[in-house]
Amino acid sequence: MTVEDLKNELLGKEYPEVVQVGAHQKVVDVAKFLEIQFLECELWKKKDITKCPAHYRLMQFYEATRNIE
Question: Which domain of life is it from (predicted)?
Answer without folding.
Answer: Bacteria
